[in-house]
Amino acid sequence: MALTIVSQIFPREMIPAVLPLIEDKLQHSKEIIRRKAVQALYKFYLIAPNQVQHIHDKFRKALCDRDAGVMAASLHIYLQMIKESSSGYKDLTGSFVAILKQVVGGKLPIDFNYHSVPAPWLQIQLLRILRLLGKDDPRTSELMYEVLDESLRRAEINHNITYAILSECVQTIYTIYPNSELLEKAAKCIGKFVLSPKINLKYLGLKALTYVIHQDPNLALQHQMTIIECLDHPDPIVKRETLELLYRITNGQNVIVIVQKMLDYLKESKEEYAIINLVGKIAELAEKYAPNNEWFIQTMNAVFSVGGDLVHTDIPNNFLRLLAEGFDDGKEDDKLRVYAVKSYLALLEEDDALYPQKFLQVMSWVLGEYSSLVTDVDPEVILTKLHSLLRKTFVTSETKVWIMATVTKIASRTSCSKAVDEIIQEFSNSLDTCMRQYAFELKNLCKDKELMKNLLPFDASCSDMVVDASLSFLDGFVAEGLGRGAAPYKPHHQRQEEKLSQEKALNFEPYRLSFASSVSSSGITGRQSPTGLSVGSDTSVNSAETGHKETSTLKLEGVRKLWGKEGYLPKKESKEGKEKEPQTASCSTLSTGQVGDPPALRFDQVASISEEDKEKQQLASTLFIGLGSNAGVSLMGKAETATQKFKRRSKINEIQHSEEVSDFRNSAAADFGPLLDTRPINMEDSEGSLHTRLRKASLSSSDIVEDNLAFEMPQSLRKSGLEERLSENRLSQSSLFADSNIEIFQPSPSAQCESASKTPLIPSLPEELEELTHSEIVQLCQSDALALYLCKVWTDDSLLLTVFVSNKTTAVLNAVNLVFEEAEHFQILESPSYQFPAIEAESVERCQKYVWMDKICTQGVLSGSVNYQLEMETRLDFSVTLSLMDFIRPMQMTTEDFGKLWLSLSNDVKQNIKMSSSQDTLSAALNTLQQKLKLHIVDVIGNEGILACQLLPSVPCLLHCRTHSRMLALWFRSPCSALPDSLLYQCQKVMEES
Amino acid sequence: MRFMLLFSRQGKLRLQKWFLATADRDKKKLVRELMQVVLARKPKMCSFLEWRDLKVVYKRYASLYFCCAIEGQDNELITLELIHRYVELLDKYFGSVCELDIIFNFEKAYFILDEFVMGGEIQDTSKKSVLKAIEQADLLQEVRHPCGASLGSTP
């Protein structure tokens, strides 16, 4: 009975202790015990999948158990595993189908019958598994058609349980690869459901309709009348489901009616979750299908006022972006805006109406941007209205800040205004420091109308400001920092692990000082709050808002200070430690400051830039010959969006990037290459900056393959230069292979996928890879036209999957597309797909992907497919099994470092394993571990040994071994909790084998 | 399945079983709110609810509501039948079960549920084997009184 307890709430730490006991119970003679053991394992699997990995074959045994109960229990595990990755279990489809056939055919003991239906739960479980297996897979689906048909036929009795099976069947039929005959039957079933007088069935029928609808809209038409009836159904749940259905069939013609129905429902409903959900849908429909402006604005108003503050932040952001960017037609846009302004003014007329905060924020933004479009309203009126809003108590301070920004914008367009003065008066003494800050800014801006107009150009919210995503103007500083021994920049994911330790290393002091002197510290939060909302999704709002605020700050406090040597520190930090928001803010202070300021001021700044930066500027200007005027533009930018978008942008543009880089290199390699060599800037950054610069240069694109040759050379030059400098600072990333070729040491976006020149039909690794340790080249899959080969290359900092595609036909294959599916455990650096432009007849092309392990597992499958066009579109699936050991690298360190690191790590796992006679000494055992698991032996003292390794990119794991009386005591420590478990498993395996 | 609740028409919780670790405070809140929602529904309404991020399946037997919260992809009808099967089991064990049986022999009701549903998944669908397991457990316990059923019938 203890097994029952185990399957209840159970802590993951205790699993290793009880696991062997439960495994034993799998062999127990009583069915009930076996069944419960399987259930308990299922629970363990849910809690910690990697700890029960090694007993997967025991699950298989359970599936073939002679007792149906045990078999049924094992289905839970399979359902879960197949949910995670269906590709690995395709081979079991046959057995699942066979089981289902037996069940449907009534072969099970009579005990399992329920209302004379054989084992309905089992049937449903199986149907669900089949659904997952057959999804988008014609071959597997074919196996199922027969049995599905059978179960549809058998489930004819009029009882709830048969309906349950039917509905599950229908869902399966619609999910797997379609078969017309079955679809027809399924459609009939749905019809039966919808028309049923029983409310539960009706509900299920509607549900089925919702997921069927995108495949077969006609089905909905057949049941039109029923749907309409359901719409006025007294049960709100049925109503909601109907709306969900309508939402799916909305189009330009019926949108008004449907949205109206939705709004009606929205007004009635009180439940929070339902409101959020519905509001999102309405907003989406309104944006997609709005027939005219008035309707759109009215709908959105209704959404905001009913939805209140529950609405998701995306909705107001999207709405504002739509307003700002407009559609294709300028006139229409203006009409839309005018209408919006008018409707908001009308809404504000009503004095004591309470509006949700978000609605007020939207209103104030629109008024600020577009109120001048409405000519017949005096800005003074608007200002008074805003003023009265500011005084209201229900308005939160965040909204007040929005309103203040609006006031500032309007004030810039009017000459002198009493209301503005009043506001300034009132809030200059406000207790709220943010408000006071804004009041002061406004006051100062009012003194200088010219500047104000420059700052707040009309309708500039969506004129894109060019962002120097790479923060190239910081390169100089980074160079200096590196020179002084600062840590090199590390990409985000790598840094997360080291975040804590790095934070200690960074010196925040100067940053605080300089920042505090330029802005009152509360200003930070003030600035953050209005933009914080829109950061990320709505850059247009952002640019306008931050733009003017930052500059005003600068104007007040003087710029020089920020550009002094001291002022540079925060910038560097914010780059290296982007994790803190205020830092990014400081970045934007600096960069956006430049944007708004008149040119004269900018030259001032340039003059005051410290020595090393000048150098950098010169470099920049040489690069920008011909783009001179852009240089300033590239320096400006919204650093906060830049930092967020950096990763993504670079990803999107990678391929383009590599082309351009190579082009550029071709023409400028001579003078550019050496320059780069002397700049020990950090890797990622220089890539990025190159990228942005080069994008501007309009370069003619020529043949890539040709360029690669020219491109490879400077690239490697630069990298080797880089590597030398970086290696000093890099403790952990020492080379695995002493003679490794530095050329491919760093994964860089540009070196990612290159088409190799022609090689014979049997694939072979290029020379530079041949020198690294690599696996055998194995065939993945093949068809008549193509064969796929794979070779794993274990580079120092990632696993390089090299996929060879060989064309066996005598014709050129065009547009061969290789795509890796997203896997839970693995992360493919850069894009997961690669397109071969053309593969010549009887030749081999290759593509390289760098892979990291994202979530720890001892073994995982990375699946993918190749699409190619030969007479007809053909798809070839393949899967690659990657093990944890593919991602483990030795970690060089000294004994002292080991000691320090050991103490700082918290997750530990201890285990004793027996040593076989062949390796009964410590050194023999250590050697086995070193050879088989790529662990690095740090030190051996007496009968104790310490080893270190790391999981790529940089998760260390330390191991302490001790021998006593033919036992080897292993003690792992790592910052990651799952890593020791998995490594322990590997150790056990290795030691058993040898 | 996330959890299973039994409560009376008056909103008194009779039995609760959680298959996912939940904090006590959240539990209380969930139970209170869910009870309100379910009790407010009329008898003719459908027995499925989309509530928060859960799907709730409930069924009323005399004055008791049986209520299960399930995941998005689970089949509602089969859950309804699961409830029914559980009631059948109780009925068989107690011999025409009533609310008082469950109140006074709540531990038996829990045992039956444990044998029937384990870790949020249905374990054994055959009535016979569940009851056999329960009988064995009863024998093991060596209770002084043969069964608490006599207690249940007096008030």
Report on the structure:
The complex is a heterodimer of chains A (994) and B (155). Chain A is an alpha+beta fold. Chain A contains 44 helices and 17 strands. The longest helix of chain A is centred in the last third of the chain and has 26 residues, at 704-729. Chain B has a 5-stranded antiparallel sheet, with helices on both faces. The longest helix of chain B is centred in the middle third of the chain and has 19 residues, at 76-94.
Tell how many strands the DSSP assignment of chain A holds. Answer: 17
Greatest contact pair?
A: A-B, 47 and 40 residues
Unreliable spans of chain B = 147-155
Q: Tell me about the biggest sheet of chain A?
A: 6 strands, antiparallel
Helix fraction of chain A? 55-70%
- Provide the β-strand percentage band of chain B: 15-25%
Gyration radius over CA of chain A: 33 Å
The termini of chain B sit apart by 35 Å
Extract low-pLDDT stretches of chain A: 459-469, 502-611, 618-760
Calculate the mean pLDDT score of chain A and round it.
65
Structural class of chain A: alpha+beta
Helix content class of chain B: 40-55%
Q: What is this entry, summarized?
A:
Chain A is of the alpha+beta class. Chain A has 44 helices and 17 strands.
Features:
heterodimer; A: 994 residues; alpha+beta; five-stranded antiparallel beta sheet; 17 strands; globular; B: 155 residues; two-stranded antiparallel sheet; transport (chain B); AP complex subunit sigma (chain B); protein transport (chain B); Longin-like_dom_sf (chain B)
Write the layout of secondary structure elements.
The complex is a heterodimer of chains A (994) and B (155).
Chain A: H1 2-7, H2 15-25, H3 31-47, H4 56-63, H5 68-84, H6 93-104, E1 113-114, E2 117-118, H7 120-134, H8 138-154, H9 160-175, H10 180-195, H11 199-212, H12 217-222, H13 224-231, H14 236-249, H15 255-268, H16 272-289, H17 293-307, H18 314-325, H19 330-349, H20 357-370, H21 379-391, H22 397-413, H23 418-428, H24 433-447, H25 449-455, H26 475-483, H27 492-505, H28 509-518, H29 522-534, H30 539-557, H31 560-563, H32 565-576, H33 581-596, H34 599-608, H35 611-623, H36 628-635, H37 639-652, H38 654-678, H39 683-696, H40 704-729, H41 767-770, E3 778-782, E4 786-794, E5 799-807, E6 813-820, E7 826-828, E8 833-839, E9 844-853, E10 859-870, E11 872-883, E12 888-890, H42 895-904, E13 907-914, H43 922-933, E14 936-941, E15 944-951, E16 955-964, E17 967-974, H44 978-993
Helix pairs in contact in A: 2-3, 3-5, 4-5, 5-7, 6-7, 6-8, 7-8, 7-9, 8-9, 9-10, 9-11, 10-11, 11-14, 13-14, 14-15, 15-16, 15-17, 16-17, 17-19, 19-20, 20-22, 21-22, 21-23, 22-24, 23-24, 24-29, 26-35, 28-32, 29-30, 30-33, 32-33, 37-38, 38-39, 38-40, 43-44
Chain B: E1 3-8, E2 13-18, H1 24-39, E3 48-51, E4 54-61, E5 64-70, H2 76-94, H3 99-104, H4 106-116, E6 117-118, E7 121-122, H5 127-141, H6 149-153
Antiparallel strand pairs in B: 1-2, 1-5, 3-4, 4-5, 6-7
